[in-house]
Amino acid sequence: NAEYGEFTATMFTQLLTTAATALLLLGGHTQAANIYTAFLAAGNSTTGISWGTLVVAVLSSNYNVMGLVCDDHMTNDTADFLCRAAGFEDGHELWGRNGVNFTEHRISIETFVNVYGGRFALDDLRCPPGARKLEDCQHRAVGSSDCNYAEGVVLKCKAKDDDLDSTSVLLFQGNGTRSSNGTVVLYGRRRMGLLGAEGVDDTTAEVLCREAGFRYLVSYNATKYVSSRARDKLSCDTIQTQNVSVILQDLHCPTNSTALGNCSATPARGDWDIDNALWLSCTNDRGPEWVLTNLTLAHNVAGHHERRDLETGNDYGTVLVSIKNTFTGEERTGLTPYTTSAYTRSSMCYIMGNSNKYPQPQRTGEIDDIYNLKVSCGYIVANEMRYVLSYLWCPGYYQKLSTCEFRVAHEGYSAGNDNAMWLAC
Predict the structure, then answer these.
(1) Chain segment 53-82, per-residue pLDDT in tens
(2) pLDDT digits over 305-332, tens only?
(3) Fewer C-beta within 10 Å: the chain N or C terminus?
């Protein structure tokens, strides 16, 4: 079982630093200087990527500094060394500088000044082929430089899918509370960030749940479809203040995959929208789990209470909801309470094939039985119809059934038959 606890901003920063760390005092002897941390950044300090401005933290016997690397005397061998320092063992694909055509793959000058103090950690760096440690290379004194922002090294490093072997999966809510459901955060040796939801299927989501320490998958979605009010996902403030970004996309796990190492993914594009990051709900309890299967509008002629008398499929009537237990196979159909949510009412009609954005809602009790426009009181009583949901909410206009949140009504629940939802689409 996963241990829950508060994942503070400080811990986020520590994870970010640890995940970027790639070269830690390699070799068993004292070094005059070494690269403690190296990572690539772009935009306003987005990290966890394979293409961006290089940022290094260099420790020396008399001076420690975090900053950029100047491109003076830059070579392919030096670029390979720097990519390895950032955790990309296969070296570089291409290199350049902040001042040359890398708008989407470089930090802004504001970030250079405000986050990194306008500093260069290394200048005149020259590394031989196969260099593994900073002491293998020549360079100016640590922190000494005559370079400007435009001369900061930009690297595109060769990223490999098999890094998934060493990647952990964590689920976080709110300001960093670890839970069994939340935004998916990937934590590897050199990076920490979010996972794009696009392309994730049931098998992949099940593997992610197991990697997060849970036995069963409940549901998954893009975070934009998860209500912020319930605090079931990582807050926007936390994502912004900790500079968390989407680092992987197109994750796919073949059938019968048992671990993340069996899966493949690609590094995320620099413009990936964090609203499309993956949200996941998992559990260790294989108890009753329910899914929405259908919504329909129903009515009957008052005084006619046989099941065959119930008419469905029209664009008006009492809203009936169907749910199914994914473990036991049990199915239920019944009422759902009246809702004031315009999003939910629009989505109800959309789910039933009607695109009316602003349908006419009423409580069933406000419709007289004599007009035969609803499920009548007599039908409800004769057929022992019950509420199957105590809550239903859809996160926007024209939503699919799978994106809506709901709570199954517990035994004995009733909002009152007159308060059942009625809708004219």
Answers:
(1) 999 989 877 678 889 999 999 999 999 999
(2) 998 999 998 999 999 999 998 877 889 9
(3) N
